[in-house]
């Protein structure tokens, strides 16, 4: 089957490469000429484990191409996926749908024969209706269906998530479109990935409900962690104690500096706005979003306290800037709020991240970047683990102690064992675990 993938970002590029790997013919289109030039040269513009090889294999096999000419790609496609960004709109927090609507107009002008237009971007309930209307208005003669097929992949594990999803959600009541979608995903449901076929509006809302629920789970355990610190309990054991209950489940119960990334913050906000517009407020999600917002800055207070109450004139070393490991994505990362708050308090911030420093240079101009974790720690008054990259899990503690001005480690991801750090002579502060000394 021929597919046009509009938007070659984290979702479009991964989905496009995976569909090509299933045997479909995929053309990924992006308006960013630089991105397309890089892809044509075999360079992958994002960091995602396994993606470079997957793209190279499928380009070599002739199943995956890249370009900026949407017209040509759409004309020959049976399915056109919209995978453009839907960031928060400045000022009000609604999803900014201008890229989706522009893509819809461009697609409408180029469609030829029966075409299934699939919204893969995360979009508020009713967006599919508007996409359908835009296409009808632009091309009254067109034969098409608009389907919602939200994407649930996680950056850092995107390929395996796409190829072995917990479920595939398909929102359309059009029988012809359902058949096309079933054919596209056939390799997956042969692997028994459950297919949830439902209405378009239900599919659109399902994506927001999933993200809001996960954000709630994270925020719940974060508040439990704060309580643990006050009452001398251990949040790791609380998480295990509740997570083994199958009704709760062990995932997304890891206390930390608050959720970030390109999805949870903007999607919870967009859901809140949709719900308010429909006079059906989601108060629980409103609270989750506000608790999480405050938490990121609160982490800087934890760091300042670990430094004896002031960081003015001191250097604080941060390990990890991306919102999670195995990605180069810094969108809404907790590190951004932490860095700003530390700088506001008079600290000099030095940072190291295995993949995020290039993007960070633009976002955080006053941060000094180090070439490795040890150079980062040199003469710093505290070392802070912000993102749990594997390379930070087995640092040479003796060497670090020697390099740091003060033996202080603030571990916002609970990577280390407090007893071991204590033995090595560190003042160690983590999240929701009792202080030993
Ligand atoms: P991204 O910013 O990485 O990529 C979007 C791409 O679309 C950009 O390269 C941009 O240049 C391109 N684009 C914009 N308008 C275009 C147009 N008219 N024609 C062609 N290309 C255009 O975004 P992303 O992270 O891939 O997210 C895409 C969507 O998927 C969002 O709605 C997001 O919420 C959703 N989503 C993201 C993730 C994730 O982990 N990143 C997971 C699930 C769902």
Automatic annotation (TrEMBL):
NAD(+) binds at residues 30, 35, 86, 122, 155, 266, 331. Its EC number is 1.1.1.22. Pfam families: UDPG_MGDP_dh, UDPG_MGDP_dh_C, UDPG_MGDP_dh_N. Residues 317-418 form the UDP-glucose/GDP-mannose dehydrogenase C-terminal domain. The keyword Transport does not apply. GO terms for molecular function: NAD binding; UDP-glucose 6-dehydrogenase activity. Substrate binds at residues 152-155, 207, 252-256, 260, 324. GO terms for biological process: polysaccharide biosynthetic process; UDP-glucuronate biosynthetic process. Keywords: NAD, Oxidoreductase. The active site is at 263 (nucleophile). It catalyses: UDP-alpha-D-glucose + 2 NAD(+) + H2O = UDP-alpha-D-glucuronate + 2 NADH + 3 H(+). Pathway: Nucleotide-sugar biosynthesis; UDP-alpha-D-glucuronate biosynthesis; UDP-alpha-D-glucuronate from UDP-alpha-D-glucose: step 1/1. Belongs to the UDP-glucose/GDP-mannose dehydrogenase family. This is UDP-glucose 6-dehydrogenase. It comes from Microvirga flocculans.
